[in-house]
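Bumping with the actual sequence this time:
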Amino acid sequence: MISESILYIGLAQSLFAAFVLATKKRVMLSDKILIACLLTIALKFVVFSFHQQHSEFFDLQFSMGMIPLTFGPFLYLYTVYLIERRTKFEYKDLLHTLPFIILTTLYFLFFKDKVDFTDVQYFTNDQYLWVRVLYGLAYFSSIVTYTVFTLLRLRKFRKKLEEQFSYHSTQIRLLWLNFIFGLFVMLFLIYFITGGVNAFSYEEVIDTDVLSHMGLTVIAFAVSYFGLRQPSLARWIPIRDESIDPDLEIDIDEEENDDKKHRNRIAEDKVKGLREKLKGHMISSKPYLDPELSLYQLASQLAITKSELTELLNEHIGKNFFSFVNSYRVEEVIEKFSDPEYDNLTIIAIAYECGFNSKSTFNSLFKQQTGQTPSEFKKNLAKIVREKETQQ
């Protein structure tokens, strides 16, 4: 009864979330991939729900072993299409469905009604043991592979963001996808462990169906909640389009970046002048006080291209845009710590005055630059001031 209740809640949530996503004012291609993922989760619930009454149409083994092979590819492709702001589907991405198509085809052609994939029968020493092991390995490999691929892609993306933006934003950095994949991995680890207990016991010690339904229901809720709240990255990063000035785009493609670097090198005789121009602008105009300062904005203020500013920072100053701008913000905070006019403000209020928009980012960067926490630094600074006053 509990299992059925969870099943129907998960089904309803998956369908409802897919409907809401599909009726958004602006549906991105990444949203459509997320809709497909939610509908696939719903399909798993439907097949499991109706297999007892209509087993000729709803195959339980298909629900248990084949459909979950699509979850990893869907979440990976959603991440890629969201990050790269793609507006057209690339047919090469259909290759990600091959494991699902091949294993499903083999199942229905050769193994349907012959192989029992339930965990209790998994290690039964019969002629189909190798089939169950093969499908189990495929299932496990899919989860590990797509989790690793996605996390590496997100890591690369976030590293690129630090070359474009002077601040951290949870919406731009897509931190919620780490949470989704954490849930995803945790669900399947629990499923594998409990399934292994049943398999080695040759009896159902733990109801893995209930665990599976609970896990997928939680994932359906989480995906729908965060997916609906995630705005298009085009709000900060323009959609890839040939008609858009390439200097406005965030550079995701490593090879494309290398080509640009070779084409747009700064002449050696101009480097010193640009460094002085940048330093003078940072001191006189203090653009770092803008908490949402971007590489494009600073390049525009200096009347140079984004690629020239990137090269100047990376190769001639030795910092990325994020660390460069925030080093000035830290210095501004230190300066205000010494100014009695700001004694009535809290440390974090001063940080916000200096262009920071995140307490955790401020604390981390301040300690990284000074070797002390902001409160330690301010306390030591006050001590030095008192000692000087005493000596006078």
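The tokens above came from a reply further down the thread. The two ends are 81 Å apart (CA to CA).
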